[in-house]
Amino acid sequence: MLAVSNLSCSRGDLQLFSALNLILEAGQIMQVQGENGKGKTTLLRTLCGFHLPDAGVMTWCGEDVNDLAENFYANLLYLGHHNAIKDELTGLENLQISAWLAGIKLDEKTAIAALRRMGLKGRERLATKVLSQGQRRRVALARLLVGDAKLWVLDEPLTALDVGAVALIQELIAEHLARGGMVIFTTHQPLVIAGVEMRRLELL
């Protein structure tokens, strides 16, 4: 379980949000909503340790994440709204490197299977610079198919995706939740997970 209490964050002199509380348990999904500039991305990055809060406490399974350190981050997968892939590398190489950086042992066969499920069959060994924006996004999202992180933190995961890819991402999220995983995300596009109650957090 992820629990956040009295979280406050600012950007420069601007207070984005304060005294924010949330609880996310196994099998739950939460959408962070709010107008542009209200701190949605900052909140997600704070949960991942990329941005230091002004105040507040975050716990994972009842323990402070600062005390857990790597034991918490090993259970977390973050995908930002930028793809974070190298143009000169292939989709296969990008996926393998991202897995290695996350401490995940990923063999080539498993990596190729992940890329193919993401609709990239025949493009696994192409430099990502020749792929379309949607295909590049699929390369980044293939990280959802490797590793066993319990908490997915997704910032605009549907960017540049077509209808078929959106349906696939919804399917992957549903499978993750059914395994007891958790998801917190932002999106400007509709995302519906059949049979799952969508929790929402509004940043005002």
Q: Layout of helices and strands, plus pairs?
A:
Layout: E1 2-11, E2 14-24, E3 29-33, H1 40-47, E4 55-60, E5 63-64, H2 65-68, H3 70-73, E6 76-79, H4 91-101, H5 108-117, H6 133-141, E7 151-155, H7 163-178, E8 182-186, E9 198-202
Helix pairs in contact: 4-5
Structure description:
- This protein is α/β, with parallel strands linked by helices and 204 residues long.
- The protein contains seven helices and nine strands.
- It has helices at residues 40-47, 65-68, 70-73, 91-101, 108-117, 133-141, 163-178, and strands at residues 2-11, 14-24, 29-33, 55-60, 63-64, 76-79, 151-155, 182-186, 198-202.
- It has a five-stranded parallel beta sheet, with helices on both faces. The protein has a four-stranded antiparallel beta sheet with strand order 2-1-4-5.
- A hairpin with a 2-residue loop joins strand 1 (2-11) and strand 2.
- The longest helix is centred in the last third of the chain and has 16 residues, at 163-178.
- The two termini are 25 Å apart.
- The mean pLDDT is 95.
